[in-house]
């Protein structure tokens, strides 16, 4: 026998090499940026706040929501992490996977069982008694220990354990993904509530001013100073503003319900925390991890990787099922007609048996199962690549959104500044008697409309900032090392 064949035989029969592919972690994509060159610029400054800027190569903090400097938000997130039922389900799924892998490891060891079998039997009188006593009625007591062992020569069980370990890893990252999603949803809902409260307050002020303008228009109509068309136009404007309020209030109520559900509660008790944009601080620095690190830090990508690993191991399981199975069974015990004589000399017995089973014909079932496992592995790898592509798209989309938010904030900020100056001028003119009260109300209405636009754009900037933290993985890998702040 040639040396390399001897080594192969020793590997199979002694060490037990595992058949099937050895999973190799996919290499990170050769990508140096999230967007085309020259487009990764810092956001523009925001009125009333410091400028936001990207900090390349930095990690997202594990407790990234604390960057918004809102104790009510911190309290809601803490309750959600402690009481959300989806997180409890994910934790239980992880325990199931871990225990399943531990159970499969039991196949590495011999299976030992003990039994005691008392028996009372009567046989036909015309037959000789097995005990040579001539009696047709007798008792038999048997005590036995059995040992069974199946050698994992080709690594089928090792591949099964490897697959289940990978499934446990998948569930671990599913738990991290669920945790990140729940935190992001709480933050997004809080920002949405703050935005809706700001919009409702501005719309209510606008409706109040439009009602006053309508009252003035009615008086002017009575005096013949304006035509009826002017009054009708003002009535339409007021009705339009009032019509916008119920949908905003509905959204606010539903957002509050969402916050309750995310914290594991019921809608009969809404949270005591309320939110407005003035009590949320926009983070000044935006972490931007290296593209090569994204596949390590996105829990959905790591979960997809674990699924590919599990599928690769299943190919080995299917392959090993087509190869010979080596097993050994042994038993030792004692038998006696009286229980007191069970372990006396002369009643002992033992047996040892080995078996080698090689599947020969099964209608192609095992071959097709291996082919199916290989196809499942190809599918898992393709799904992994799709998850990676989607992860990079998610980050790029968020960066584009932040850029557009910055430009929109610049525009709405300019509009609000102009409306503020116009309102200040109108108020001075009213004091001097240069313009009518109606002109002042028009200036105030313009200001409130600009304010609503500013509120919406600020909320979008806050939400997209939170979305960036989520898109970059949420900092789960730092949880054990980062102390609460």
Structural account:
The chain has 485 residues and is α+β, with helices and mostly antiparallel strands. It has a single domain (19-123, 134-478), classed as Outer membrane efflux proteins (OEP) (Up-down Bundle), CATH 1.20.1600. Helix content is 58%, strand content 12%. It has nine helices and six strands. A four-stranded antiparallel β-sheet has the order 2-3-5-6, with no helix packed on it. It is elongated. The chain starts with a helix and ends in a 14-residue tail after the last helix.
Number of domains: 1
- Radius of gyration equals 37 Å
- The end-to-end distance, rounded to whole angstroms, is 68 Å
CATH topology descriptor: Outer membrane efflux proteins (OEP)
Main-sheet strand order equals 2-3-5-6
What's the layout of helices and strands?
Elements: H1 3-15, E1 53-56, H2 71-83, H3 85-105, E2 111-122, E3 137-151, H4 156-222, H5 228-262, E4 285-288, H6 291-297, H7 299-320, E5 325-336, E6 348-357, H8 365-432, H9 437-471
Parallel strand pairs: 1-4
Antiparallel strand pairs: 2-3, 3-5, 5-6
Concise overview:
With 485 residues, this protein is an alpha+beta fold. It is built from 9 helices and 6 strands; from the N terminus they run H-E-H-H-E-E-H-H-E-H-H-E-E-H-H.
């Amino acid at each position: 026998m040639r040396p390399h064949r001897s080594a192969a035989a020793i590997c199979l029969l002694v060490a037990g090499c595992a058949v099937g592919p050895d999973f190799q972690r996919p290499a990170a994509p050769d990508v140096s940026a999230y967007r085309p060159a020259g487009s990764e610029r810092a956001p523009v400054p925001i009125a009333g706040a410091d400028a936001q800027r990207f900090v390349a190569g930095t990690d997202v903090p594990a407790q990234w929501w604390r960057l918004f400097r809102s104790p009510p938000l911190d309290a809601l997130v803490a309750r959600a992490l402690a009481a959300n039922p989806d997180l409890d389900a994910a934790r239980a799924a992880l325990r199931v996977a871990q225990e399943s892998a531990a159970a499969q490891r039991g196949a590495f060891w011999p299976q030992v069982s003990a039994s005691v079998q008392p028996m009372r039997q009567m046989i036909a009188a015309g037959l000789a008694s097995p005990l040579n006593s001539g009696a047709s009625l007798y008792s038999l007591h048997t005590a036995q220990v059995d040992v069974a062992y199946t050698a994992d020569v080709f690594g089928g069980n090792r591949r099964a354990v490897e697959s289940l370990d990978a499934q446990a890893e998948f569930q671990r990252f599913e738990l991290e993904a669920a945790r990140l999603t729940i935190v992001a949803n709480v933050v997004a809902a809080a920002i949405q509530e703050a935005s809706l409260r700001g919009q409702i307050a501005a719309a209510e002020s606008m409706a109040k001013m439009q009602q006053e303008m309508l009252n003035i228009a009615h008086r002017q109509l009575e005096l013949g100073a304006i035509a009826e068309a002017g009054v009708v136009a003002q009535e339409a404007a007021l009705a339009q503003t009032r019509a916008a309020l119920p949908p905003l209030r509905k959204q606010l109520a539903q957002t509050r319900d969402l916050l309750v559900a995310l914290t594991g509660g019921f809608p009969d008790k809404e949270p005591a925390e309320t939110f407005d944009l003035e009590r949320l601080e926009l983070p000044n620095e935006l972490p931007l991890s290296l593209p090569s690190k994204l596949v390590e830090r996105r829990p959905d990508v790591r979960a997809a990787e674990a699924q590919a690993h599990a599928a690769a191991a299943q190919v080995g399981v299917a392959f090993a099922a087509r190869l010979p199975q080596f097993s050994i069974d042994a038993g030792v015990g004692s038998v006696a007609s009286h229980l007191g004589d069970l372990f006396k000399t002369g009643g002992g017995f033992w047996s040892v048996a080995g078996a080698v089973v090689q599947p020969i014909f099964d209608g192609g079932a095992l071959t097709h199962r291996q082919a199916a496992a290989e196809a499942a592995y190809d599918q898992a790898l393709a799904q992994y690549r799709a998850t990676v592509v989607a992860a990079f798209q998610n980050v790029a989309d968020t960066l584009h959104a932040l850029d557009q938010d910055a430009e929109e904030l610049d525009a709405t900020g300019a509009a609000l500044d102009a409306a503020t100056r116009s309102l200040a001028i109108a108020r001075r003119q009213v004091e001097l008697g240069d313009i009518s009260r109606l002109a002042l109300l028009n200036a105030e209405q313009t200001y409130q409309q600009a304010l609503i636009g500013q509120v919406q754009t600020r909320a979008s900037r806050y939400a997209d900032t939170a979305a960036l933290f989520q898109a970059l993985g949420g900092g789960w890998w730092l949880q054990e090392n980062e102390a609460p702040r």
